[in-house]
Write a structure and sequence with these properties.
46% of the residues lie in helices and 13% in strands. By secondary structure, it is α+β, with helices and mostly antiparallel strands. Helix 4 runs parallel beside helix 8 and helix 10 runs antiparallel to helix 11 (364-371).
């Protein structure tokens, strides 16, 4: 699909102050966020959820708020401060999240902008903005935290790579049209050196997707089985056997840039927690102390996120992104755990979480259970601490004999 750039240069957004942008987004949300969407999505089928997500993406795109983090010529062009204002107002309006398009709008786009060719960007970015769903084929059984141990093999035969292997924890793969795939193209090279980064059409022959049912009843994680799948050589991102370096851009996006929106959503969860505390424990100094502590941590996360993504932080972006991801995932657990405590037994009643909400459904037990997955994807908390220690602090890698 040809790209239709959204040109903000002639719009007043380019000359707006942050306060004017805040008012614009707030007014737009008041007119467009569908009332009762949480109730409707809580009982929605998977097909209804997918239709709703596509509709909401189109609404945001028409307003220019779908991809504020993209470059100007591709529909974005907002500064970090402006992005924070947009996500802040969407969160405060309790707007749905684009959970179906998380990988495509963030991970796939960042990879294409940073390492793709002009032809690849022209081929894919317009479709992504129009609602094409992508998934990520990185982790494997036995190659999760130690991702470089992956065993999926891509053998070049003429103009195609023939791929065989298995991927796991691929969120949204059952709905995806494309996949960001890591595969080993040189089995004789050191494990970080023989990996290539490929764009795989999920409609190709030889692909089987199996959703994994979670304890919450959801099935957004999937396994992907690959049997003699052919991928054109033109779908290679970067150089052959240099996929590990390219993948760091994708992982850093998962650990960093997406945190702008997630930090603002965490602030929304904090406001819900304050209201819950007023209803259940009015006047409790202990509760107020813990809320104040969480509030200071949420604010620190917002500041850390913006600092990590500022141009001056580019040279240590991987370390800064790891700090943000580690802090966010563990703060999310602390905040939702306190919600479980405050809500008591009534808060532990089984309920269906709205499909378009992400973790922040206000059903505290379910949100707490869901929070644990955030310490795993994009590198576990243990991996983040290793990155911070080795690359950020210069500590030696521990060798065990």
């Amino acid at each position: 699909m040809p790209v239709q750039p959204f040109d903000r240069r002639s719009s007043r957004a380019g000359q707006q102050s942050l306060d004017e942008l805040r008012d614009e987004v707030r007014t737009w949300c008041a007119e467009h966020v569908p009332p009762g969407w949480r109730r409707e999505q809580a009982g929605a089928s998977h097909e209804e959820h997918v239709r709703f997500q596509h509709w909401w993406l189109a609404e945001l795109d028409r307003a220019g708020f779908a991809v504020p983090h993209w470059p100007l010529d591709w529909g974005g062009g907002y500064s970090l401060a402006e992005q924070a204002v947009i996500y802040e107002q969407l969160a405060r309006a309790d707007a749905p999240r684009l959970v179906l398009f998380f990988v495509s709008l963030h991970h796939a786009a960042a990879t294409l902008f940073g390492a793709g060719t002009d032809a690849q960007r022209e081929r894919h970015l317009g479709d992504i903005r129009a609602g094409e769903v992508w998934c990520q084929g990185f982790s494997e059984p036995g190659a999760g935290s130690d991702l470089a141990s992956l065993r999926t093999r891509a053998e070049r035969r003429g103009d195609v790579y023939v791929v065989n292997g298995q991927k796991v924890w691929a969120s949204g793969a059952q709905d995806a049209s494309w996949c960001l795939l890591l595969a080993r193209t040189d089995p004789t090279a050191p494990k970080h050196k023989g990996i290539s980064y490929l764009l795989m059409d999920m409609r190709s022959a030889g692909i089987t997707v199996r959703p994994i049912r979670q304890i919450t009843g959801e099935e957004h994680f999937c396994e992907i089985f690959l049997t003699d799948v052919e991928i054109p050589v033109g779908n290679l991102i970067g150089a052959e056997n240099d996929g590990w370096r390219v993948a760091q851009r994708t992982l850093n996006t998962e650990r960093g840039a997406t945190m702008i929106e997630l930090a603002e959503r965490l602030a929304l969860g904090l406001r819900w927690l304050v209201r819950l505390a007023r209803d259940t424990n009015p006047g409790s100094e202990l509760v107020e102390d813990r809320l104040a502590r969480l509030a200071s941590e949420v604010q620190a996360l917002r500041l850390l996120t913006r600092r990590a993504l500022a141009p001056s932080a580019e040279r240590d972006y991987g370390v800064s992104a790891s700090v943000v991801k580690l802090f966010y995932s563990e703060l999310l657990q602390r905040l939702t755990a306190f919600g479980v405590e405050l809500s008591g037994l009534p808060g532990q009643e089984a309920s269906v979480r709205p499909l378009s909400s992400g973790w922040e459904s206000g059903l505290w037990l379910r949100d707490f259970i869901g929070s644990w997955e955030w310490t795993i994807p994009g590198g576990t908390s243990e991996i983040q601490r290793n990155i911070i220690a080795e690359r950020g602090l210069g500590l030696p890698r521990e060798r065990w004999s």
